[in-house]
Amino acid sequence: MTDQDQNLEAQDSKPKEETPKTVEAINSTEEVKQESQEKVEAETASTQTEATTEQADAATEAVEAVAAQAEEAIESNFKTRIDLKPFSEKVEAIRSEIANYIVGQEQMVNLLIIALLADGHVLIEGVPGVAKTITARILSRTIDADFKRIQFTPDLLPSDIIGTSIFNAQSSKFTFNKGPLFSNIILADEINRAPAKTQAALFEAMEERQITADGTTYKLDPPFVVLATQNPVDQEGTYRLPEAQIDRFLFKILVDYPTLDQEVKIITDFHERKRNINVDDVKTIITRKELKDLRDLIGDIFVEEKLIRYIAQIVESTRNNPNLFLGASPRASLAILHASKALAAMQGRDFVSPDDIKFVVPHILVHRLILSPEKEIEGIESMEYIQELLNETEIPR
């Protein structure tokens, strides 16, 4: 091999140096590849986004379809929706009229209206001077119905409230003179001051809405509601109400003192009036016929089966309970049902919710439950224990 051939072979074996143009071409090719890859990734992401959007739209349409079916099912359950607007207007008018004379005590007023609509009696307990009697009187004045007030005293006899038979010399026959219990709304003031014999005279009237005297039964004209007050502090000259009579009261309302601002408002209103409240100025809001129509509407309020079971579970939990000496009877279950339906209607709903039941339960059970001696010694109040029962009972969903 000649020297010239060796030199050529050596030159071929050396790595070839890349020219600037070659480097530029390579870089350009890499950029094109990267741009192409980014474009592919962007198109892929766009395709996935469009697919996700389509899936979301399809899911939304499915949810709307299910909601429409649920709405149709609800409408099918309620073949004719109840028009509660007139109902709410009347209730609000009664509440507003009472508020013109009574400051605060909203819960007592609401419970009284519920009891009136649910055809139930009320036991109002509170210290003297917290507007128990005057509120009951004002409520009775908002209804075009007969009203009687009975002041219960230790010497009150059954004939004083029921009536008595008097001999008529002209006809030579006995004529029955009806007592104050023959009325529509009865205010039984200081009811725990009457003896047991007089209290027993109320049993038949409060439950069966009738009075039997001298072998004759007299039906009481609806509405018939007993609004009873009692003082929990002064026990001298008082008698414990029989459990059978206590159970006939729909509610026991515990009336507390007003707040500071409310008491300032009470004093200011009294100063500006320059006189006490005149109940004759109270406006009549509804008639007996309208009250009957409102009660009929309450009967049509819808209650789900699971809520009926919820009521039964609450009441059943008070029986065979070691912490309770006496539990609630089925009359309490019916009271919860009636009261919760009335509350739902007052709020403009034609169906009962669990909150309606939870609101009325404490006021229905507080006077029906008797705690065991051990719990009384511990200082536990009935209302506290009722709240525990409500918290332990599972709310239906």
Topology at a glance:
Elements: H1 3-13, H2 20-77, H3 85-99, H4 106-117, E1 121-125, H5 132-141, E2 143-144, E3 147-151, H6 158-162, E4 163-168, E5 173-178, E6 185-189, H7 196-200, H8 203-208, E7 210-213, E8 216-219, E9 225-230, H9 243-246, E10 249-254, H10 260-273, E11 286-287, H11 288-299, H12 305-316, E12 324-326, H13 330-346, H14 354-365, E13 370-371, H15 373-377, H16 382-392
Parallel strand pairs: 1-9, 1-10, 2-11, 3-6, 6-9
Antiparallel strand pairs: 4-5, 7-8, 12-13
Please explain how this structure is put together.
The chain is α/β, with parallel strands linked by helices and about 400 residues long. The protein folds into 2 domains: about 80-300, Rossmann fold; about 300-395, Magnesium chelatase subunit I, C-Terminal domain (Helicase, Ruva Protein, domain 3, Orthogonal Bundle). The chain is about 55% helix and about 15% strand. The protein has helices at about 5-15, 20-75, 85-100, 105-115, 130-140, 160, 195-200, 205-210, 245, 260-275, 290-300, 305-315, 330-345, 355-365, 375, 380-390; strands spanning about 120-125, 145, 145-150, 165-170, 175-180, 185-190, 210-215, 215-220, 225-230, 250-255, 285, 325, 370. The strands form 5 sheets. The chain has a 5-stranded parallel beta sheet. A two-stranded parallel sheet has the order 2-11. It is elongated, with a radius of gyration of 39 Å. The termini are far apart.
Keywords:
single chain, 397 residues, alpha/beta, Rossmann fold, Helicase, Ruva Protein, domain 3, 2 domains, 5-stranded parallel sheet, two-stranded parallel sheet
